[in-house]
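User: quick one
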Amino acid sequence: VVVPLNGRLAGTPGGAEGAGADGGERAGGGEAPPPAAPGPFVERRTTPRLGSDTGLPAAPATYDPALERVEVDLLLEGVYRHYGFDFRGYAYASLRRRIWKRIHAEGLASVSALQAQVLHDATALERLLDDLSVNVTAMFRDPAFWAAFRARVVPVLRTYPFFRIWHAGCSTGEEVYAMAILLEEEGLYDRARVYATDMNERVLRRARTGIFPLERMKEYTENYLRAGGAAEFSGYYTAGYDGARFNPALLRNVVFAQHNLVTDRSFSEFNAILCRNVLIYFDKALQARVHRLCYDSLATFGVLALGSRETLRFSTHEECFEPLAPAERIYRKVR
Amino acid sequence: VTPAAAGGEAVVVVGASWGGLHAVSTILRGLAADHRAPLVLVQHRSREAEGLLARLLQDVTALEVCEVDDKQAVLPGHVYVAPPDYHLLVEAGEEGPHFTLSTDGPVRYSRPSIDVTMVSAAEAYGPRALAVVCTGANDDGARGARRVVDRGGAALVQDPATAEVRTMPEAACRLLAGAPRPRWDVAPLDQLGARISRAARAVLRGEAGVRGAAA
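Assistant: Done. Structure below.
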């Protein structure tokens, strides 16, 4: 059903697992095990980080901002035309920060140098892709949202004999597992089909493993309890050497699939869409496109859940929705 | 050129950590009665603290205080509070300056990071950015304030002797030490608000720096 991405990464050898190679901005430690056979690309990860200041990725103070903008536009155009990944509508301030993080990590000194590297070396593109597309999240992030979902959305879902949920931009899958746990506890999970999509095939592979860093379980447990969880959170995973391994039965009604919100179309009709802290990385025009995509993908009275500081207020589709839980940014399609 | 796209307005980024509520309340009370430049507050706090800080600050100022939503416009007459657990960036959009949020990892344990917001303000506003570093028990804000000054803007640091915790303003002073005066200065807490308003007015007149002379 899912329209495949028009990028060319799927068959790249070795996988060059770039996640975590950036010195700790991501939760490290319990990531999926790396691909079995380290290919010739693995060595590249030891690239020196000349002049890097990973805590504060930015152009040098002497870098001409107007020239930087030109170079960033050229980089994005090149990536789009050569690989098919379209970052041209991303919000500039956060995009630039992520690009400079990659420039420092590659030991380079200019956006143009990164452009050359990325266009001539698909593994460098993979590393950039991780920097630009992996969104850091947590299980039951914003417990108030999950509590509101239980209180306001679950009763609606209960009225359906069967329903579909779409996690758009699911990244490494934390919220997908949270949703499965919530639906299981509400006795609704066997009526549900959960579609979890992301543009980045490699984060989907990690999501499928169901392994998350052990050191985050304390935070997740607190979130879970504050979100209204009534069971023992540790009952959902077993601790192992490689991290907390979540019960594979939680995935029995989940379909992970590659889908790009920027370039792909609607692929089904859903009763609820979660798209949380994904649109913050897009500019207003691209946000409007994705709002439209969500609208087109929702059944009447379908629910749209955004991140806790995202809003439909500046959107062209505001009129088509009414707030179901306004403080938690849960909306319902009404026309 | 990009910085000009932010328009003629100045922007003030105030960074505060431990002891920040008292410091920021004092600053807001001290702003000039006609102060209009948007003030962006990055205060370290817990993930659950949503909403409370903005409500407390609204009690001490006539400016409109709000917690920022993604893509919200940056307008005069407002105090914008960085939401917990996001980085807050400003950008110079074609339709005027606005905010962008990010959930990228904490920067040296902080999200929001004061440095991240100040760097984005330096890039978007150039000489019209003003960085203010207040009390705190870490060194966040130092590199951001330096970047604002290096991009032609100005910085004010709370006099460490008047700070609940002096670590953060001291770190900012160390990093700003090499930068030319009067592009940055140190001021006691009870004068910071007035100094901010004066510096923001100077920006609108096209003057650089944070000269201490009485208004």
